[in-house]
Amino acid sequence: MDDLLKLVENSKEEIKSFSSTEKNPAEAFRIRFLGTKGLIKSLMGEMKNISAENRKQMGLVLNDLKLLAEKKHEELVMMNAKGQPLIDKALDLTLPGDTLPLGSRHPISIVRNRIVSIFQRLGFGVAEGPEIEDDWHNFTALNLPENHPARDMQDTFYVSQNPAWMLRTHTSNVQVREMEKGKLPIRIICPGRVYRNETISARAHCFFHQVEGLYIANNVSFADLKQTLYFFVNEMFGEKIKIRFRPSYFPFTEPSAEMDISCLICGGEGCNVCKHTGWVEILGCGMVHPNVLENCRIDSNQYSGFAFGMGIERITMLKYQIKDLRLFSENDLRFLKQFTSAV
Ligand code: DAH
Fold first, then answer.
1. Which terminal residue of the chain, N or C, has fewer Cβ atoms less than 10 Å from its own Cβ?
2. 138 lines ligand 1 (CB under 6 A)
3. Residue 147 in contact with residue 160, Cβ under 8 Å?
4. Which residue from 39, 44, 48, 34 is spatially nearest to 11, judged by alpha carbons?
5. pLDDT grade, residue 82 (50/70/90)?
């Protein structure tokens, strides 16, 4: 019995001063003292040699030893390999929690939503259509028959298994699809992604986004078009912006115009962005060509309409003074994070 008590005393000392250079000291401790082949188990095994009258006392002593070892093991579990506590600060529940990083909208989505909500206030509905399109809806119905020279400006990607299919070059295909439905009047805007076979640079990409608009009813005039676009520009860029229309050509509109706004960067004085003209182009527009109406089975003697189309990237670059179009599709968080507070 005395021998066993001595062993217990030694074990206590060993437990108290236990240290280990092992990677996991808690586990090393457990194996040494608490495991099935551990010291405490083997001391317990000695009980059979203890006389009946001393057995109870010895049991208590060994039980104490086991509790001591278990406590030490718990402490070791809370320490790292260097013997430092894993939680070095007391838990303070009054501190604010860790903040979760919140995502933000892409600048193209922010501007698209703005454009959509401005036109919705004028009573325009949103229409969408396919990005993979046939020749009729992307070109022919829009007064751009095969071999028309204006097709050169909109080279695109074709589906090799079926060359009749292509990626749409503008969202005007949605206008055609809406007109073909035959429900008049029509007052829609068509936001969406479009594709062109262009070399990628700071100013051009093989895909970008557009919002087009179409209004068809009785007696729609160019004055309606101008007033609608004035309202849009004032809402989008503020009331101080000046606007001008330049005559232009699109096969699907007659007459056609391009709309410029006074340069947001230099206020019209002349700078790199406006190429020293004081003006920047933001959209194309015009009165829907009678051929387009007839192609879509709308009586051009009874109905007239206007249409316009703008690139969302272009509006976004002007609004936020972004100089390189490629930033929109590179997913660089340093760029995207700058729009967290914009909605
Ligand atoms: N579809 C033209 C383009 O992508 C933009 C455009 C111009 C759309 C005039 C129109 C319009 O609806 O009337 O370059």
1. C
2. no
3. no
4. 39
5. low
Q: Please report where in the chains the tokens 């009785």 appear, as a residue.
A: 218
Atom of ligand 1 nearest to the CA of 288: 13
Q: Which residue has the tokens 């939680």?
A: 87
β-bridge pairing 125-126 and 243-250: unpaired
pTM: predicted TM-score of the whole model, two decimal places:
0.72
Q: What is the pLDDT of residues 148-168, one digit of tens each?
A: 888 888 999 999 999 899 999
pLDDT digits (tens, 9 = 90+) for 284-294: 999 999 999 99
d(CA 81, CA 22): 8
- Length of the chain equals 343
Token digits of residue 329 = 């599709």
Structure tokens at 30: 């457990």
Task: Classify 325 as helix, strand or coil.
Answer: helix
Residues forming beta bridges with residue 214, ordered by sequence position: 188, 307
Residue nearest to atom 4 of ligand 1 (CA): 170
Peptide bond into 191 cis (omega under 30): no
**Beta strands at 186-195 and 125-126: parallel, antiparallel or unpaired:** parallel
Residue 109 pLDDT grade (very low, low, confident, very high; cuts 50, 70, 90): very high
User: Tell me, what DSSP letter sits at residue 85?
Assistant: B
Ligand 1 touching residue 311 (CB < 6 A): no
Tell me whether the omega of the peptide bond preceding residue 255 falls within 30 degrees of 0, making it cis: yes
156 lines ligand 1 (CB under 6 A): no
The minimum-distance atom of ligand 1 relative to the CA of 307 is 13
**How many whole angstroms separate alpha carbon 162 and alpha carbon 160?**
5
- Would you say 114 and 121 are in contact if contact means Cβ atoms under 8 Å apart? no
Residue 249 token pair: 């050509």
Chain centroid offset of residue 295 CA? 39
